[in-house]
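Q: What would this chain look like folded?
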Amino acid sequence: MARKSVARAVGAVGLALTVGIGVGIGQGLVGRGADGGLAWARQGGTAAEAPEGASAAGARKAPVFAPQTTDEQNVIRVARQVTPAVVGITAGSGSGSGVVVRQEGVIITNAHVVGRSREVEVSLANGERVPGRVLGRDVNVDIAVVQIPARRSIAVATVGDSDRLTVGQSAVAIGNPLGLERTVTTGVVSAVNRSPRGIELGGLIQTDAAINPGNSGGPLVDSRGAVIGINTVIYNEAQGLGFAIPINLANNIVQQLLTEGVIRRPYFGISYDNLEPEVAQYYGLPVEQGIIVVQIDPQSPAARAGIRRGDIITRIDADAIQRGGDFQRVLRARAPGQSVTVTVARPNGGTARLNVRLGETEVAG
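A: My prediction, written as structure tokens:
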């Protein structure tokens, strides 16, 4: 009798284990996909109403996934929109990233990615590898332009406007860090017009979106998926300090190479910061908008014209200069050797109108 009781008890335990295991597997199956079972579970159906293959216990334990936030949905959309236009570039033993900006197969990357090469290998998003020709490079701003054979099927990124960036706006970096193709990282525009110590580049966009070796030449894009910069360099000693070249500068180089075959850039000779109204009010400055001269090359056109450290540039010719983007935009529209009239406000309250004859930045192609 005792043996029969033990057998019945063991049988009951085995049945319970079988039922338990069956529920667990069933839950996994329902949770993974059957539209009927998962939908029924979420709608609170009873056991009698359950579709074939679903169980009441499985329904009660079906996983509930949190909905994606608006920010998440936007990053997903941006990644899907831009990554097909991101390419890998191999030049000699080095490699990096690039982004297609014209249907004719025109790609922007970094000058340090292509090095001195005239021919490179380009890896497209579909896995195809094609030859690319280096149209030109400007090592002073670390931009190179590559062209591959045109094809109708190629994805092309939308080019944004880096002159209108606002500190704090979203930024997404896409590239091939350490050979991991089309990696997406997110952050914000941390600052604009940066000239970091130890980096021989100026006017950079600073971002905390993670940038690593291999990201060089890839796009930094805004929340609409428009390219606002070309990722170029990081500070190895710190985290969250990555830099990108403004896309308007890079696109200007593209335009010159396609139309003239050469790169010519005017040289002014200052570094500057945006003047914020709060700062102007605090120090009692005579104007509340403009760019304030922080450093000046003593051999530059600006120095020869009489521009001083601390001057606030408010106008060039008829164009108002409210922020650094205005200054860059106006200079891009001028040619080396051209003279411009620069209006400055002096910290002591005086003003001056100075004639500056623009120099020319040496471009090593």
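The CA atoms of residues 92 and 349 lie 57 Å apart.
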